[in-house]
């Protein structure tokens, strides 16, 4: 897991900027053409993410014999994967004249590991929706927090899909850079799931549970308040580059998500 110093260092990189850089970028005069990307490959990555999540859940469910803990473990794996890719992207951010920082071109491309992570994560959310629909209406055993999970996955789909499939260069770079930064919020989820597992198993010392809960508190503040706040600010700087309807939809999601945090 990443150290707290890395979290705060990344936040400082995003927030510790001179006021002159906070002005809105002027609207571009040139009309950009969308770049051709392999949408079929992205769809395959989404399917791979869904299949991997389903396979992991099935294997852990058989090994543990317990559904709720299996869901926690699979979600922990998803959070560890997505936050590690997001952290790698944050470390690679470059200065950008239009919205302060951006991913380098190699990471912002449709076949790069950041967009691939967006696809895999979206597939995981689809797999969780399928799990809820199978366990609830068909088996009559609704999973924990199922309504909130469905709402989260619907909102996250609205956020992910434009970032994956929009390909106009400046817009795609802005959307993918902001979503990469925002995805580091998954880091705190690692400690949330660990805390749940320790409580359910009741096999750890109070000292260990206390350490995990403190890690959850610190990581939540750093990744979901400081870091996510920086992502929102960069998104507003990039407003002239983004389709107005997409901007309105995502900015609404960001505002409500930040208030919920």
- Major sheet attributes: 2 strands, antiparallel
Strand order of the biggest β-sheet: 1-2
| Helix and strand element order | HHHEEHHHHHHH
**β-sheet strand percentage:** under 5%
Shape: globular
Report on this structure:
- Helix 2 packs across helix 5 (113-138), helix 3 packs across helix 7 (169-182) and helix 3 (67-91) packs antiparallel against helix 8 (186-201).
- It is built from ten helices and two strands, in the order αααββααααααα.
- The chain is mostly helical.
- It has a two-stranded antiparallel sheet.
Task: Name a few traits of the molecule.
single chain, 10 helices, two-stranded antiparallel ribbon, 2 strands, 2% strand, 74% helix, 261 residues, mainly alpha
Spell out the blueprint of helices and strands.
Blueprint: H1 4-15, H2 39-64, H3 67-91, E1 94-96, E2 100-102, H4 105-108, H5 113-138, H6 146-165, H7 169-182, H8 186-201, H9 206-237, H10 244-260
Antiparallel strand pairs: 1-2
Helix pairs in contact: 1-9, 2-3, 2-5, 3-5, 3-7, 3-8, 5-6, 6-7, 6-10, 7-9, 8-9, 9-10
């Amino acid at each position: 897991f990443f150290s707290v110093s890395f979290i705060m260092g990344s936040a400082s990189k995003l927030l510790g900027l001179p006021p002159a850089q906070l002005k809105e970028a002027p609207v571009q005069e040139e009309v950009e053409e969308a770049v051709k990307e392999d949408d079929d490959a992205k769809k395959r990555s989404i399917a791979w993410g869904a299949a991997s999540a389903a396979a992991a859940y099935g294997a852990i469910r058989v090994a543990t014999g317990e559904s709720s803990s299996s869901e926690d473990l699979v979600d922990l794996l998803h959070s560890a994967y997505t936050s590690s890719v997001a952290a790698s992207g944050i470390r690679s951010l470059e200065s950008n004249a239009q919205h302060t920082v951006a991913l380098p071109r190699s990471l912002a491309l449709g076949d790069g590991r950041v967009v691939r992570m967006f696809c895999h994560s979206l597939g995981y959310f689809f797999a969780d929706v399928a799990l809820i629909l199978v366990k609830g209406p068909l088996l009559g055993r609704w999973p924990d927090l199922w309504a909130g999970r469905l709402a989260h996955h619907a909102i996250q789909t609205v956020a992910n899909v434009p970032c994956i499939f929009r390909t106009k260069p400046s817009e795609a770079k802005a959307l993918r850079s902001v979503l990469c930064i925002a995805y580091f919020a998954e880091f705190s989820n690692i400690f949330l799931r660990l805390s749940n597992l320790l409580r359910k198993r009741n096999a750890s010392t109070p000292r260990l549970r206390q350490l995990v809960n403190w890690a959850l508190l610190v990581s939540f503040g750093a990744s979901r308040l400081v870091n996510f706040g920086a992502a929102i600010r960069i998104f507003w700087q990039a407003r002239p580059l983004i389709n107005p309807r997409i901007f309105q939809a995502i900015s609404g999601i960001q505002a409500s998500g930040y208030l919920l945090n």
